[in-house]
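ESCALATION

Customer reports they have been waiting on this structure for their group meeting. Please prioritize. Original submission:
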Amino acid sequence: MLTEKYDPNDRFEYVYSQGGVDRILVLKDKMTGVHYLITRTANGNGVGITPLMNADGSMFTTEVEETW
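Update from on-call: job pushed to the front of the queue and completed.
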């Protein structure tokens, strides 16, 4: 369940959230349609971000709204 507040005018959209203190998030760039996996540790000393990939190695994307 997502706990962050979402503003529809923001460029990035929360797609998925997992975990409590140590978190895994998936964000979608509404301009490009690219999805990113973000991990962060409870103490804040570790953060990672990478684009999600399809099985064939291409970047995972979804439809983009025309407003972008």
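Sent to customer with the following note: DSSP finds no helices and four strands in the chain.
Escalation resolved.
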